[in-house]
Amino acid sequence: MPSPCSSRSVASESPLTRGANPSALRVLPELRATHLEQRDHFLPADFFYFEENYDVRGADKPDGVRRVTLVSLLRELWGTPATVLELTEPLWVRFLPKWLVLAFWWKLSGILRHEPHRLVVYAMENNSVARLIGGSRRVPGWVERTFAWCVGLASLLTIDRLCFATPGSAATYRSMPFVDRIPQNELIDLPAPAVRARETPSSMSVTFLGVLEERKGIPALLEAWEEVERWVPDATLRVAGPGPLGPMVESWCTQRPSSRVSLGHLSHEESAQLLSTTRVLVSPSVPVGRFREQVCLPVQEALAHGVTVVSTAETGLAGWLAANGHLVVNARADHRHFTGQLTVALIQALRAPLDPGTILASLPEVGGWKRANSWLHADFTLGRTL
Question: Is 24-190+365-383 a domain of CATH 3.40.50.2000?
């Protein structure tokens, strides 16, 4: 179904040169390394954030990137000369109370100061509304309807432009009342190629990159890999990342160090180097509580390096991955069938990976996030159309 604003073209997707006072502000519940890396490719905007992800803790922050409290941010929004605020999505339920305060405060301050305050949102959530409210618990229908009605109405009253990162996120938001009346677009969050040409690594290497926790599918991966070792004895699994299951992973790797490697926490630069030498990226995320994989940054980075991906249908990119030859398994099957599917997919990907050139050619020249940023701010920021 085409979105109401999908016919509007983005005339140029080049970033503006950073100059004097940005006319946009961007608020992040959690600052991540990718936000800092992508910052110079987007429209000029001051970044405000509440928490830090593990990949930026202790790192120096550039000018224009500040940690705030809710009270200090409200003061900033009242006095800023900026006219556009980019907030995270309202269906980040943990952040929703702050989102409501910030969104209505931004609009109210614009009215009282007789200034055109615009609010734009980039949405990635692809879980059902019922799951977002209650996790794995059953939610009464009236509770789900009331929540959807309230969030939908609040979105209509505050959001001037809404862009979806995946078809799944578009479906989730459009299931709520009023959202279809907001100007919107759907631009799938695929990366641009990180390299121009790449050969398939000769080593039979599979990489997991991410937080070592149950919802990232670590238990199923370890079990599946033990079967992969029987069928592809020269294959190696490299596991990189921090997390509560780190000690378990390290102990498991020591049992067979020739085909299992625990790398621990890597910097973003080290992660990129790791992906440039791997044959397959595995991302076996499973739904746990209110969590469902939205896009998955390691999957995006693997694609940008021309790496074959084995994933589950939980990610919002699952449909695109399957349509383009990558391997997608069903994480909602019972455990035995899930690990069996994962085993078969890993073996298939190791023995017949996609051609890296084909993967890179399937990606857009301009990344989806950057295209979304241009569309969200077109006509609003700096008084020009992008």
Answer: yes
